[in-house]
Amino acid sequence: MRALGAPAAVLSWLGRQGTRAVAPLVFIGIAMPSIGALLKPWVTEAIFVLLCIAFLRMDLAAFRAYLRRPTIVLAATAWTSLVIPAVFGACYLAFGLKAHSADLFVALMLQAMASPMMASPALAALMGLDATLVLVTLVTSTALIPFTAPLFAYAFIGRGLRLSPMALGLKLLAILAGSALVGVTGRRMAGPAAIERYTDEINGWNIIVLFVFVAALMGNVATRLFATPLLMVGLAALAFVVFFAVLGLTTLLFAWAGRERAFVLGLMASQRNMGLMLAATGGALPDLAWLYFALSQFPIYLSPQLLQPLARQLAAQSQAAPEPVRGRNPCPDEQQD
Question: Which of 194, 209, 208, 201 shows the shortest CA–CA distance to 51?
Answer without folding.
Answer: 209
